[in-house]
Amino acid sequence: MDGIISKHEIDIRDGKRERMDMMDILLRISEDKTSDLKLTKADIKGLFLDLFLGSTEETSVALQWALAELLNHPKALKKLQDEIDTTVGLKRLVEESDIPNLPYLRAVIKETLRLHPSLPLVFRKCREDSKINGFPIAKNSRIAINLYATNRDPKVWEDAAEFEPERFLINAINTIGLADEEDMKGQNFSYVPFGGGRRGCPGANLATSALHITLAALIQCFHWKIKGAEKVNMEEGAGFSVPMAHPLVCYPISRVNLSDILLIN
Ligand code: HEM
C-alpha cells in the first residue's frame, strides 16, 4: 500500500496523472492546507485497506457459507437451481439483470448473511451520557454490538438457528415483515448483516450484487459434490470474519456446455 501511495505521489508531482482516480483525489485533499477535511496518509491507507479487505475477505467468506448451507440443504439447492433454470435457462450465463427475477436466490443470500454475518461484531463510542433499554451508558464508553446474536435472536426469528431462506420470501411467514429491498439497510434492528447508521457498510450493495451473481453462476453451471462426506462440517473457525473452521472442499460437476455458455456471453 505504501508503494502504491508513493507511486501516485510521484506521478502527481511529475504531472503524469491525466485522469485522477480516487487515491489521487484523496492525496490532493491531504496536501491541501485550506481543505475543511483533514486527511493524513495513514487515513488514506486505512481507507484503502478497509476497502480491499472488506471487498475480498468478507464477501468470499459469505459465499463459502452460502454454498455450504445449500450443500447441507439439498431441497433448497434444488429449489434454487430450478428457479435459475426456469428463469434463465441453460443456454446463456445468468447475469445481473436476472437478479430481480430470482427471489429465491436473494432469499438464500439474506438467510446466509443472517446466520453468518461476515463481520459479527461492530463497535461504537458513546458521545454523550445516554441510556439504552434502561441501561446507563457513560460518555466515551466503547460499545460492542453483537450482530451475530441479533440476527439469531429467538425472540424475533422462528427456528432461529435453522437455514430457511423461505422466511425472506414475501407472503411467507416472515417474522420481521419487511419489504424485500428494505432488508439490507440496517433500519430494522432484527437483521443487521451490514451494520447500520452512518457507519454502516458502504459496500453492502456491491457485496450483495457480487454474492448474487457468483452464487447464481455456480449453481447454474455445476452440480456440487462434497469431498469425502455426506454433510459439510459447519463448525465456525476463529477469525474476525468468522470463517468456516474446515474450509469447504467440494467438486464441481458441469451441467452445461461451459464453452458454449461462456462464448455466448
Ligand atoms: C458480505 C460482505 C460484507 C459484509 C457482511 C460487510 C459487513 C460490514 C459491517 C457489519 C460493517 C460495520 C458496519 C457498522 O459499524 O455499522 C462494515 C463496514 C465497512 N465495510 Fe463492509 N461488508 C461486506 C462487504 C464490503 C465490501 C464489498 C466493501 C467495499 C467494497 C466494504 C467496505 C466497508 C467499509 C469501508 C466499512 C467501514 C465503514 C465505516 O467505518 O464508516 N464491505 N461492513
UniProtKB/TrEMBL annotation:
The keyword Ribonucleoprotein does not apply. Its main location: membrane. Its cofactor is heme. GO terms for molecular function: heme binding; iron ion binding; monooxygenase activity; oxidoreductase activity, acting on paired donors, with incorporation or reduction of molecular oxygen. Keywords: Heme, Iron, Metal-binding, Monooxygenase, Oxidoreductase. Pfam families: p450. It is found in: Membrane. PROSITE patterns: CYTOCHROME_P450. The keyword Cell membrane does not apply. GO terms for cellular component: membrane. Heme binds at C201. It is a single-pass membrane protein. Belongs to the cytochrome P450 family. This is 3,9-dihydroxypterocarpan 6A-monooxygenase-like.
